[in-house]
Amino acid sequence: MALKVGQKAPDFKVNDQDGNQVSLSSLKGKKVVLYFYPKDQTPGCTTEACNLRDNYKLLQKKGYEVLGVSTDSEKSHQKFIEKQKLPFQLLADVDKIIHSKYGTWVEKSMYGRKYMGTARVTFVIDEKGLIEEIIEKVDTKNHADQILNPGVPSKPVKVKSPKKSSPAKTTAKKLATKKASKKKAIKKATKKKR
Which residues are catalytic? Predict the structure, then answer.
């Protein structure tokens, strides 16, 4: 059975990166971002975690508690947190307890090979423990924006790079500018003599 918006979020008890038991019911009264990701230290997962890290204060200001979930070990999570300076808990769902309750342990396919793995999905859970939103198309670079602005397509920031010109073009421009300056100076000098 797939979970739907408006349903009660399934409770769970699992250890975080430090071996402390975390349960959803202990967070009642808080909004929870429960984000599932495939693997610590991989490019997409690191991008997503760092986007949440960089926007963590804003998420907290809006009342959200962030919990990352993967099947990695506590030790793996500790290394990931340390390396990326993540300010939130990562849950070590090595026995796939949360994955089975949330339907995020799925069959995947890569290069024609089928295997089981974690679906990249985020559940936003309200203060009453109800699923407020399910984000299935996660934009790893702009995930915090997806959480804070539900239903609005995320807009990546485009940074305009300065136009690069070749050294030959730059030299030609400088010479043309010098010639034009010399011509003006000659015209002024000629006018003054008259």
Answer: 45
- What is the pLDDT at residue 162? 46
Model pLDDT, residue 132: 96
| CA separation for the pair 139, 32 (Å, rounded) | 18
pLDDT at position 6 is 94
162 token code pair: 């300065």
Q: Pairing state of beta strands 105-110 and 113-118? A: antiparallel
- Tokens matching residue 17: 């990166």
Residue 112 one-letter amino acid: G
Distance, in Å, from the CA atom of 171 to the CA atom of 177, rounded to the nearest integer, reads 10
DSSP reduced 3-state for 44: helix
Domains defined for the chain, CATH in brackets: 13-148 (3.40.30.10)
Task: Provide the token pair at 72.
Answer: 């990695």
| H-helix or E-strand spanning residue 131 | strand 131-135
Q: What is the mean pLDDT of each run of 10 residues along the chain (194 residues)?
A: 90 96 94 96 95 96 96 96 97 96 92 93 96 94 91 51 49 58 58 54
| H/E element, 34 | strand 31-36
- Cα angle 66-68-73, degrees, rounded to a multiple of 5: 145
Q: How far apart are CA 191 and CA 194, in angstroms?
A: 5
User: What pTM, to 2 d.p., does this model score?
Assistant: 0.76
Contacts of 74 (CB under 8 A, 6+ apart): 15, 16, 17, 18, 19, 92
Alpha carbons 114 and 94: distance in angstroms, whole number: 20
